Amino acid sequence: MAALAHPPHGGRLWRLADVCAACAAATTHAAVVPDTALAASPATRTAPSRNRARNQREHRGPSEQVRVREMLSYLASALPRQTSPSARLLALQCALRSNAAGHVRIPTGLIRGMRLGAHTAPHTELEEACWLWSPARPKTGLEGFMDVAVRTQALTRRDRARAADWALRTCPAARIRPLPRLLALVLIAHLPADSPQAPLLAEGDLLARMCGLTPPELVHVLDLLVDTHFLQSWSYSPNPEDVQWEFALPNPLPCNQGPGRRDCASTLTSGTLDSA
């Protein structure tokens, strides 16, 4: 697998290396690069290979949940750790809604509906991190170009747009502050889609980096999600580097909704996460 690493004092220097899973997990300030980001760009493919890739995406492409998890992993490495939850949620939507040239335009209504809190300008954080470049300020909404790594994605724009919508449906913005909403999305993105009852386990440092948190801050927000009945419980696994958790409801994925049924997204909106 490939890992993208950023040295602590490397400035704009990034290193892409082919490493094993153990080395990738042990490397600080690094994130695994999704396979979809390493695929050849459409412009370099022959016609037969483009047709094969199109058929693969249509019939057995990664689910929206997997795409969101991969993008969150990429953003954990691409953005500075101090990037706010509001800016990370906006970056996720920008990355998933951008076209093949890395250009994105998000209307004002969508940004307003995301309820990013009192944060003055999350897009300014992304520009200062050299991840988003806006050549001109549009009168409404947000418009700009993404980091070059986003432009190499092999997935179609429609595939990524569905993943962006999935992220919004999974953790709706009503009455949920950006920080607990971001961690809730990260936890749901790690849920095995083919086996919802499987043990839920992830490296604590990975969860913290995806949300821009320190380990003590991660503990605080996990406790908050338990207090608001989004999580049934959480604890450290026998391996102290790993965190395991249990959702309050059996299957928190948004596709589980139906008459008389609730998912964890509805648990979030009925809680008091606006106090976080």
Description:
With 276 residues, the chain is of the alpha+beta class. It is built from 12 helices and 8 strands. A hairpin with a 5-residue loop joins strand 7 (231-236) and strand 8 (242-247).
Main features:
276 residues; alpha+beta; 3-stranded antiparallel beta sheet; 12 helices; 8 strands; 43% helix
What's the topology here?
Layout: E1 2-5, E2 15-18, H1 21-26, E3 30-32, H2 35-38, H3 47-60, H4 64-78, H5 85-97, E4 103-106, H6 108-114, H7 122-128, E5 142-145, H8 157-170, H9 178-189, E6 200-203, H10 204-211, H11 215-227, E7 231-236, E8 242-247, H12 264-270
Give the helices and strands as they follow along the chain.
EEHEHHHHEHHEHHEHHEEH
Number of strands: 8
Count of helical stretches: 12
Provide the residue-averaged pLDDT.
76
Q: What percentage of the residues does DSSP assign to strands (E)?
A: 5-15%
Structural class computed from helices and strand pairing? alpha+beta
Distance between the termini: 37 Å
| Silhouette | globular
Give a brief description.
By secondary structure, the chain is of the alpha+beta class. The protein has helices at residues 21-26, 35-38, 47-60, 64-78, 85-97, 108-114, 122-128, 157-170, 178-189, 204-211, 215-227, 264-270, and strands spanning 2-5, 15-18, 30-32, 103-106, 142-145, 200-203, 231-236, 242-247. 43% of the residues lie in helices and 13% in strands.
